[in-house]
């Protein structure tokens, strides 16, 4: 059988930056932010002590305490923020390409609402155990996404899947409202904090489980950058370029659900990253997904590490829900960019 050559779609270059330059800048900022986040918090660790603490605990009592804080709390949390931020941003970029809509995000096809419904059902019916909430949220997000996709296939094109996702979201949030009405005070408190999002559950075992899974799914999505470029030209044009649209839609939706579902299960709902970060990268680079996708991963990781760092240091010794921080920072910044673009 002759090998099938996948066509490359040429798109205009970005208006300001090239992908390598922006990736290098974001990688440098990400490294500096990770170091600052690892050193700051309820217990401050001197920057000068960080290199030594990465390899061994100093003999002093303070050194032993810093070593324990760094390895048991800060490093897992910072690396988890990188993982979640990069995954959400990449999933958002894939959804925006699939729906050809800059306002699309993973929650559009029911991923977030389904995950929230699974977690809320686990809290109200089975207690607040994370070992029950996480798999329930994952199963909920996956079932909601598959339901939206199957119902959408009854109609024609991506608009049907989009409308089915809106309906699934409405049903999920209605059932969540019913569970909220039935919950007792303790369950309501747990339910509220889960919905606001948090990275406090980051541990090395959780990283060991979610890290390889997230990296593999991200790699599979990155391979589809040519198809995403073709989708920007229109479904008919993508078909004429040789892309099989139905398998492509199914693959992108399922990969996005498999990427976002476990992350939502582990962190709760975190808004802004999957919607705004890919859009900001597109404003800087243009629409070529060969550079947009890896840059979105770095930008998403940077934004979530920064948001989690701020959430931990603003009200020491307590911390703000990370969903509140991402919305407070991202919403006004996004509006400023839109207003600035409209003025031009």
How would the blueprint of this fold be written?
Blueprint: H1 19-39, H2 50-53, H3 61-99, H4 111-126, H5 130-154, H6 157-182, H7 185-196, H8 204-222, H9 225-232, H10 235-240, H11 245-267, H12 273-285, H13 289-313, H14 322-343
Helix pairs in contact: 1-3, 1-13, 3-8, 3-9, 3-11, 3-12, 3-13, 4-5, 4-6, 4-7, 4-11, 5-6, 5-11, 8-11, 12-13, 13-14
Explain how this protein is built.
- With 344 residues, the protein is mostly helical.
- Helices cover 75% and strands 0% of the residues.
- The chain is globular.
- The termini are far apart.
- The mean pLDDT is 82.
Overall SS class: mainly alpha
- The separation of the N and C termini measures 52 Å
Radius of gyration, in Å, reads 21 Å
Largest sheet: none
How many strand segments?
0
**What is the 3D shape?**
globular
Unreliable runs: none
Q: Name the average pLDDT.
A: 82
H/E series: HHHHHHHHHHHHHH
Strand content: under 5%
Approximate helicity band: over 70%
Oligomeric form of this entry?
Answer: single chain
Individual helix count: 14
Structural descriptors:
mainly alpha
What's this entry about, in short?
The protein is mainly α and 344 residues long. It is built from 14 helices and no strands. The protein has helices spanning 19-39, 50-53, 61-99, 111-126, 130-154, 157-182, 185-196, 204-222, 225-232, 235-240, 245-267, 273-285, 289-313, 322-343.
């Amino acid at each position: 059988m002759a090998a099938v050559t996948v066509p490359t779609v040429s798109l205009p270059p970005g208006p300001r930056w090239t992908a390598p330059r922006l990736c290098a800048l974001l990688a440098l900022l990400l490294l500096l932010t990770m170091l600052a986040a690892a050193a700051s918090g309820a217990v401050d660790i001197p920057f000068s002590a960080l290199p030594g603490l990465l390899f061994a605990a100093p003999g002093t009592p303070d050194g032993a305490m810093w070593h324990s804080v760094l390895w048991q709390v800060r490093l897992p949390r910072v690396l988890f923020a990188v993982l979640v931020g990069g995954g959400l941003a990449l999933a958002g970029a894939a959804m925006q390409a699939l729906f050809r809509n800059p306002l699309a995000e993973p929650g559009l096809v029911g991923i977030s609402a389904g995950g929230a419904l699974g977690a809320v059902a686990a809290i109200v019916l089975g207690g607040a155990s994370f070992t029950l909430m996480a798999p329930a949220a994952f199963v909920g997000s996956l079932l909601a996404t598959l339901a939206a996709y199957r119902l959408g296939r009854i109609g024609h094109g991506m608009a049907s899947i989009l409308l089915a996702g809106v309906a699934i979201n409405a049903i999920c949030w209605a059932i969540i409202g019913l569970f909220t009405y039935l919950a007792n005070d303790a369950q309501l408190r747990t339910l509220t904090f889960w919905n606001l999002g948090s990275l406090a559950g980051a541990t090395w075992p959780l990283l060991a489980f979610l890290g390889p899974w997230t990296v593999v799914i991200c790699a599979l999505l990155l391979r589809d950058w040519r198809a995403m470029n073709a989708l920007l030209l229109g479904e008919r044009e993508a078909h004429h370029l040789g892309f099989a649209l139905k398998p492509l839609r199914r693959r992108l939706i399922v990969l996005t659900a498999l990427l976002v579902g476990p992350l939502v299960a582990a962190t709760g709902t975190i808004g802004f990253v999957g919607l705004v970060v890919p859009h900001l990268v597109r404003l800087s680079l243009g629409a070529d997904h060969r550079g947009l996708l890896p840059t979105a991963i770095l930008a998403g990781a940077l934004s979530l590490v920064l948001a989690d760092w701020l959430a931990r240091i603003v009200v020491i010794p307590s911390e703000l829900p990370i969903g509140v921080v991402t919305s407070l920072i991202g919403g006004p910044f996004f509006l400023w960019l839109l207003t600035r673009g409209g003025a031009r």
